[in-house]
Amino acid sequence: MPQDDNALTRARLKTPRAAAIAGIVFSVLLTTIFWLFRSTVPADPLEHGEWLAMNSRSATIGLNLIPFAGVAFLWFIGVLRDRLGAQEDRFFATVFIGSALLFLAGLFAAAATMGAVILAASTLDPSEVINSTTFKYARASAYIIANVYAAKMAAVFMVSTSTIIIYTRIAPRWIAVLGFGLAVVLLTGSYALSWSAIVLPVWVFLISIYILLDNFRTQHT
After folding, report:
1. Which domain does 117 fall in, by range?
2. Residue 172 falls in which region: left (phi positive, over 0), alpha (psi -120 to 50) or beta
3. CA-CA distance, 6 to 97, in Å (whole number)?
4. CB atoms inside a 10 Å sphere around CB 169
5. How many domains is the chain built from?
6. pLDDT higher for 76 or 82?
């Protein structure tokens, strides 16, 4: 009887085939967020903050999209784990899940810091906020959290996921090789290249497209 109950539970909790769309949603949202920020906020963490006094609406929209991107990323992780099934290795699974959660934590921390700056500028005189030591500290903190900690955890996530792909063949080998290469870009270029953060959503998009197409092929065979 317990075995029948367990089988029924697994059947009810079966991951929807269309769940791979979550990775596509994450990729589109994160790319949009980066574009909104880059069109408003300068890449230099020591900039003087004139954008706060002019127009911070795009940055605010980007901040409001981050929680939705985070939820989509968590769903994407679930899709990958479901695809692994019994092949999941405890060591790589720990690194894979841990780096993903730390990436999200860093992304959320940087967003919260920038959100506090924008909120303060909207309720106070923007010139007071811009000229304060608090703004300089918050701006530098958000930059370091996003470009050092979150970016490096994203690179670890890409490396661990690429390694899993090679060993389990849940996706084509070329996606894994591409993941290793893009991870190097994140590890070495997050400071020098302001666009380097875009490599994660691009890579997740490729994996999601493959899983989605593979699911549809399996469904119709």
Report:
1. 20-80+89-216
2. beta
3. 25
4. 11
5. 1
6. 76
